[in-house]
UniProtKB/TrEMBL annotation:
<keyword id="KW-0503">Monooxygenase</keyword>
<dbReference type="InterPro" id="IPR017972">
    <property type="entry name" value="Cyt_P450_CS"/>
</dbReference>
<keyword id="KW-0479">Metal-binding</keyword>
<protein>
    <recommendedName>
        <fullName>Cytochrome P450</fullName>
    </recommendedName>
</protein>
<keyword id="KW-0560">Oxidoreductase</keyword>
<dbReference type="Pfam" id="PF00067">
    <property type="entry name" value="p450"/>
</dbReference>
<dbReference type="InterPro" id="IPR001128">
    <property type="entry name" value="Cyt_P450"/>
</dbReference>
<comment type="similarity">
    <text>Belongs to the cytochrome P450 family.</text>
</comment>
<keyword id="KW-0349">Heme</keyword>
<keyword id="KW-0408">Iron</keyword>
<dbReference type="InterPro" id="IPR002401">
    <property type="entry name" value="Cyt_P450_E_grp-I"/>
</dbReference>
<dbReference type="InterPro" id="IPR050121">
    <property type="entry name" value="Cytochrome_P450_monoxygenase"/>
</dbReference>
<dbReference type="InterPro" id="IPR036396">
    <property type="entry name" value="Cyt_P450_sf"/>
</dbReference>
């Protein structure tokens, strides 16, 4: 043996043999033993059934939802995407995986959320049932419909700035030569400005500057500026989601520790962006804490989070670790939720706004019908019945638009086709359970594919078509369509882990879409006509949307 190892070639042989042995025991034996009884489900290929590599590649490609959609169309409504993970496209699975009773049946958030979290969990990432329900209850009022309505002046302030910018852009261009605007970027600025203010009482001023450059501060207090914050957020999330898909736990920890130390690699794959985004949120949080009380009656989201008593000393370990560690643990927990507010509160809504406008521009009949619904409600018309010329006067109030059925249908239809979170939200089964009638064993990770189930051909007529009418009109061929659209809708997920911020999102969508489509005529520039790209990270972000914009001619209304 000693002789064999003495030659370098033999050492290589030994290494290969050891690796093969390891692979056999770690990969092939479990596959053939099949303790989770998953071999009967079709997988895209052997790589997906044996390793997490297929899923990792799909995740890194930023086309995960569409790749999985193609595999579902090819293989059927339940597919195996990794050794222990099934993706369902059977609508019946929604209730079993995300419904109100799922938790009591032992179907809860997967360890994916631990891997996504840093050293503290935000509300989205908390997995423990009691801890989550306590934290959610403590801040629920901040996100309730009645609180959000009180935030209308804040939303209007940012909307006004958006309109002023668009008007300036139109006025600055010589006739017929207007350069197109990347409206997606401006909508991203809008939602970030809104969340800076509704979340922290600290507007970021991105629309005013037409740039997403802002202050950041490290934990130790060093301040610097981050430019292109939206890009930083997107690149950082792509990296975090990739890492969260890497198992087993020890490999995950190892990579998370090693990658940031290899600077070139870290900046290439977005690890440094996660630090920059965190530091932007630390700066916002510290400024908010220094400010003390919220400076308006409706408060801001951080106001509720800062007063939340569930981050008490016994929960965060003061009794065992002492006051210093407690303060640190509490700080990290607040940083986690500050990041959640900034990310979840802006990026998804920006995606929804962009998609809704894109679909309306692609579907002139839907746009015309929407304008018909809005026309009698236009605020501040002139004595001749024309549209108001001032930007401030042209903004719809929430009260005027909140119950408009066609406007809501236009928004819901775009969310159905392009869910801003198309990620297959993973849940871990901890007890034997039936999902969509199939027996699933503990240890299996299950999820529903939002992009696919929203387009299920058994539920909807021409499921890939944008047809807002389907939400409000009876269809004889699909008599249950209107009910099914709601019952099998997972845009905001369902059950106890459903989105807490949906009222704010819908509020912003209704007011902005109504105002923009009545004030402007827009045309998609050539490069955005054919397709609005989707980049799946955790959120599914649209690519650039270039539009040419002009004011609507009042006389034609
Ligand atoms: C169109 C916009 C939005 C969409 C499509 C959306 C979608 C979702 C989805 C699918 C989840 C479930 C995530 C999971 O299970 O892992 C979720 C959770 C959540 N969302 Fe949203 N969201 C939107 C806007 C917002 C806004 C504006 C906020 C905050 C201001 C927000 C805050 C949250 C929070 C805190 C959770 C975690 C809830 C919990 O686990 O108890 N979201 N959202």
């Amino acid at each position: 043996m000693m002789l064999l190892l003495a030659s370098p070639l033999s050492a290589v042989y030994c290494l290969i043999a050891a690796s093969l042995l390891y692979l056999t025991f770690k990969i092939l034996v479990p596959y053939f033993r099949d303790p989770l009884n998953l071999r009967k489900y079709p997988a895209p290929n052997l790589l997906a059934a044996l390793t997490p590599l297929w899923l990792l590649r799909a995740t890194w490609s930023q086309r995960r939802s569409r790749i999985i959609h193609e595999e579902i169309k090819r293989l059927g409504d339940v597919i195996r995407v990794s050794p222990n993970q099934l993706i369902f496209n059977d609508p019946a699975a929604i209730k079993d995986i995300y419904g109100v009773l799922a938790l009591s049946h032992g179907v809860a958030k997967d360890e994916f959320y631990d891997r996504l979290a840093g050293d503290a969990h935000d509300l989205v990432q908390l997995r423990d049932r009691a801890e989550h329900s306590e934290r959610r209850k403590a801040i629920a009022n901040a996100f309730a419909a009645k609180t959000v309505v009180n935030m209308e002046p804040v939303v209007r302030r940012s909307l006004l700035q958006l309109l002023v910018n668009i008007d300036k852009h139109i006025e600055a261009a010589s006739p017929g030569e207007q350069p197109p605007i990347n409206l997606r970027k401006w909508l991203n600025f809008f939602t970030l400005d809104v969340i800076g203010d509704t979340g922290f009482g600290l507007p970021l001023g991105f629309l005013e500057e037409l740039a997403d450059t802002t202050e950041a501060e490290t934990e130790g207090g060093t301040r610097y500026r981050v430019t292109d914050m939206i890009d930083v957020l997107h690149r950082g999330t792509r990296y975090s989601v990739l890492m969260a898909n890497i198992t087993p736990y020890r490999l995950n920890r190892l990579l998370k520790n090693v990658i940031p130390k290899i600077r070139l690699l870290a900046s290439r794959i977005g690890s440094t962006c996660t630090d920059d985004f965190e530091n932007v949120c630390i700066r916002q949080l510290r400024k908010r804490i220094e400010k003390g009380q919220a400076d308006r009656e409706s408060g801001d989201f951080m106001d509720f989070i800062l007063k939340d008593k569930t981050r008490s000393s016994d929960k965060l370990g003061a009794a065992t670790q002492g006051e210093r560690q407690f303060s640190y643990a509490k700080f990290r927990s607040l940083v986690a939720d500050a990041q959640m507010v900034m990310n979840a509160g802006s990026d998804t809504t920006a995606a929804a706004l962009t998609s809704t406008i894109w679909f309306l521009l692609q579907n002139p009949c839907a746009l015309a019908r929407l304008r018909q619904e809005l026309a009698p409600l236009v605020p501040n018309r002139t004595s001749d019945g024309d549209l108001p010329s001032s930007a401030a006067a042209s903004m719809f109030s929430y009260d005027a638009v909140k119950d408009l059925p066609y406007l809501r249908a236009c928004i819901d239809e775009s969310l159905r086709l392009r869910p801003p979170i198309a990620y297959q939200l993973p849940r871990l089964v901890s007890r034997p359970v039936k999902i969509a009638g199939r027996d699933i064993l503990p240890g299996t990770v299950v999820a529903v594919a939002p992009y696919s189930v929203h387009r299920h051909p058994s539920l909807y007529r021409d499921p890939d078509e944008y047809r807002p009418e389907r939400w409000i009109e009876f269809d004889e061929g699909f008599p249950n369509q209107r009910d099914d659209l709601r019952k099998y809708n997972i845009v905001f997920s369902q059950g106890s882990r459903a989105c807490i911020g949906r009222h704010l999102a819908i509020f912003e969508l209704q007011v902005l879409v109504a105002t923009i489509v009545m004030r402007y005529d827009m045309e998609l520039a050539e490069e955005s006509k054919k397709e609005l790209l989707i980049f799946d990270r955790f959120n599914s972000n649209p690519g650039p949307m270039y539009v040419k914009i002009k004011r609507r001619i009042p006389a034609s209304l």
